[in-house]
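Title: Comparing notes on inverse folding

I've been comparing how different people in this forum approach sequence design from structure. To keep things fair, I'm posting one structure and asking everyone to reply with a full sequence. Here's the target:
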């Protein structure tokens, strides 16, 4: 998947295997370093030790300390980084501008090969992981996953996976530190690790940058096969067929859990495309029609190695009865049989869809999936044959059903440190009916909606093919937003339309970008766009609940952040649309069609309304306090925006270091640049289990008051870097049609200094200007 122009592999006797690749579509350089050690390799007496090791290595190495460590340095460069501890591997990854690749890799190598396991860092990180565990233990998906793993018969290590908490780590920090040192020494062997490097630059350019970091040989290793990910392989996963009735906290649903044997992991994204398709005739749509529910579908990958993938297919949006669950399982089995007969053109079609999705991934996520084996770039004739995927589908021979039934008797089971409530009962698979013909795989002759509402506007001339294509952007109006509930309903209702657009070689993007919900649709021909709008009219819900911010205080932090646009809005459920095409006649047709949607419309414009929304929520029996703030920049010119962007990059690393590492206020600590309500600003996130919201606010104020700007200045920014949608065309569209206001009246304001910008932001924090949300 994706397009890799060139790849080289280097092996040394005592270092990691290094893979260097040129990926032209990437805009940044990315590095992924994988060690084949995870929670399955940690000692049973220290659950969570693998995760703790991952946290501890970020404390720094021998050469790069304090603000020169990888995490603050990457933040200062405007890059991104992350790490993950899984059952059978631990991965560290980052992305930066290609010019910064060498410096980033030196810092990553320093912290991984010479970590500083100081006692003060150990105390801090055990407390941080305990905070993370508290959030994790309230997640319905985490509880469902733990309940599932508790029933895995072998390997037994699946039931023992643990992210760690205060109880697991205990009070003896000396013993814990010794165990940490031993685990690191045994597991983090360089010769068993892999480093993956990718950027748009040539392999030779990248080699020249990084060769001395690992003392790479002059010539790459000769090989005819693609590299294989060195994640630890497990014995075949097995369990007794069972039906787990799991009480999901917010949304009822059905999970069909399976293990699939895959000789070619790069077929997995194609399999996911097939399973999650929502076009007419897809698995999700057929089950929805048969049961009379409107369902959504997602895939959760629990585990993989180089031979098997353990996953759950979730169908969500209804409370499944036992009969519903049986019918869905029967349809799933029928779908597997139908999918195993996929033709080569159909296989190539879904492979192309998977490639398109892979290219939309940010650089480090793209490289991580590639390093794990899920994204390969070779386009040999063998890869275009569906036989391995057909064989993989045939390898699924047992199932576990996870479903929610509120009336069920519930048992309590401890697994992975979590208290799971569910009930186990034998799974009896009933006979299947022959519904092969109910499923549709694409490409197919054009599938259009029936009973389309009449269009009163004049129609397009036959054979009209505007140059450059046509696009439509639908979004909440200036100062408006929609709630998470409305967003979820629209996503579910319109999913068949979105899938049809993709199958018809169009482009559809429905996501939050720059703090706005955007629906972007593009086709080469206006007739296709017109047909798509007709489908949207048909599938749009006849009635939507009114967006409301009531009850937002009880949301998890992740859900709260997703709803920040509606918390900052002046009004809700108002929309506007923009169209780009060659003629006004087309725009009038589009306007006439969209008038059939039950929406309140406003003129398309940039939001210039003042932003001042301060809210306080009190949640009974809450065990944490949360602050989420958005502070708009007081812009006076484009130059001032560049200055504020420099400050934001500096704040991000300094804020994390001071409040997360020094003051240890909690697990969720962030200060970064965002865009909301069509304006630039700072977003601050703080959550703590031992401080009040007032104390958190005071810590924020003290941070800005005490912060000293470096005498040598900050990295000079020459351009404004906004949030990317993952699609270059949409980003260009937004820049052209939604220019962010910078108050250009002082365009020559070259004396706007860092100190001046910092002082202005201190005043805004002190006066609580912008949007402030306090939950306690």
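Reply #1:
Here's my take.
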């Amino acid at each position: 998947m994706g397009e890799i122009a060139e790849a080289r592999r280097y092996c040394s006797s005592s270092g990691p295997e290094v893979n260097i690749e040129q990926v032209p579509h990437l805009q940044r350089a990315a590095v992924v370093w994988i060690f084949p050690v995870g929670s399955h390799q940690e000692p049973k007496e220290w659950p969570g030790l693998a995760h703790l090791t991952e946290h501890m290595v970020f404390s720094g190495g021998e050469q790069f300390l304090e603000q020169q460590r990888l995490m603050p340095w990457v933040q200062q460069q405007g890059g991104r980084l992350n790490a993950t501890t899984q059952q059978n591997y631990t991965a560290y990854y980052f992305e930066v501008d290609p010019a910064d690749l060498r410096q980033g890799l030196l810092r990553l190598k320093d912290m991984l090969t010479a970590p500083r396991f100081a006692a003060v860092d150990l105390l801090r990180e055990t407390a941080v992981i305990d905070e993370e565990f508290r959030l994790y233990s309230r997640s319905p998906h985490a509880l469902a996953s733990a309940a599932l793993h508790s029933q895995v018969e072998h390997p037994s290590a699946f039931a023992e996976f643990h992210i760690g908490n205060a109880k697991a780590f205990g009070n003896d920090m000396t013993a814990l530190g010794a165990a940490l040192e031993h685990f690191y020494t045994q597991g983090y062997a360089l010769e068993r690790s892999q480093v993956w490097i990718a950027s748009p630059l040539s392999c030779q350019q990248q080699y020249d940058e990084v060769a001395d970091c690992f003392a790479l040989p002059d010539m790459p290793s000769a090989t005819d096969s693609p590299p294989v990910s060195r994640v630890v392989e497990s014995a075949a996963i097995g369990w007794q067929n069972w039906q787990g009735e799991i009480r999901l906290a917010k949304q009822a649903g059905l999970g069909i859990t399976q293990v699939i044997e895959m000789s070619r992991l790069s077929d997995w994204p194609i399999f996911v495309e097939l399973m999650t398709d929502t076009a007419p005739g897809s698995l999700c749509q057929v089950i929805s029609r048969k049961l009379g529910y409107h369902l959504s579908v997602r895939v959760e990958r629990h585990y993989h190695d180089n031979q098997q993938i353990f996953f759950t297919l979730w169908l969500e949006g209804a409370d499944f009865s036992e009969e519903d669950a049986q019918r869905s399982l029967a349809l799933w089995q029928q779908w597997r049989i139908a999918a195993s007969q996929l033709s080569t053109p159909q296989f190539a079609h879904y492979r192309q869809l998977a490639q398109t999705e892979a290219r939309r991934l940010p650089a480090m996520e793209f490289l991580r999936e590639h390093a794990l084996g899920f994204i390969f770039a070779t386009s040999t004739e063998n890869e275009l044959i569906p036989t391995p995927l057909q064989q993989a589908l045939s390898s699924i021979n047992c199932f576990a059903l996870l479903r929610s039934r509120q009336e069920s008797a519930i048992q309590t089971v401890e697994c992975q440190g979590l208290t799971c409530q569910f009930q186990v009962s034998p799974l009896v698979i009933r006979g299947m009916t022959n519904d092969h013909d109910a499923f549709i795989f694409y490409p197919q002759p054009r599938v259009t909606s029936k009973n389309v509402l009449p269009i009163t506007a004049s129609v397009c001339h036959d054979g009209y093919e505007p140059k450059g294509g046509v696009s439509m952007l639908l979004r909440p109006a200036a100062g408006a937003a929609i709630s998470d509930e409305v967003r979820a309903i629209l996503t579910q209702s319109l999913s068949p339309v979105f899938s049809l657009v993709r199958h018809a070689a169009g482009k559809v993007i429905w996501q939050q970008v720059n703090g706005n919900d955007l629906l972007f649709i593009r086709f080469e021909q206006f007739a296709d766009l017109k047909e798509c709008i007709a489908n949207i009219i048909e599938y749009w819900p006849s009635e939507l609940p009114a967006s409301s911010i009531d009850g937002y205080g009880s949301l998890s932090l992740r859900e709260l952040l997703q709803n920040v646009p509606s918390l900052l809005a002046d009004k809700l459920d108002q929309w506007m649309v923009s169209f780009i095409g060659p003629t006004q006649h087309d725009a009038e047709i589009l306007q006439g069609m969209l008038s059939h949607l039950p929406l309140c419309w406003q003129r398309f414009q940039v939001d210039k309304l003042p932003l001042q929304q301060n809210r306080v929520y009190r949640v009974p029996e809450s065990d944490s306090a949360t602050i989420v703030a958005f502070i708009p920049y007081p812009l006076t010119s484009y130059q001032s925006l560049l200055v504020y962007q420099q400050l934001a990059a500096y704040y991000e690393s300094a804020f994390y270091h001071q409040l997360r590492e020094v003051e240890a206020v909690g697990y969720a600590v962030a200060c970064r640049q965002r865009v909301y309500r069509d304006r630039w600003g700072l977003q601050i996130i703080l959550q703590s289990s031992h401080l009040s919201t007032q104390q958190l606010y005071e810590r924020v104020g003290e941070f800005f008051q005490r912060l000293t700007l470096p005498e040598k200045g900050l990295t000079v920014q020459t351009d404004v870097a906004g949030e990317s949608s993952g699609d270059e065309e949409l980003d260009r569209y937004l820049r052209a049609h939604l220019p962010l206001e910078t108050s250009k009246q002082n365009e020559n304001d070259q004396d706007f200094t860092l100190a001046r910008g910092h002082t202005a932001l201190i005043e805004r924090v002190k006066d609580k200007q912008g949007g402030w949300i306090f939950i306690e």
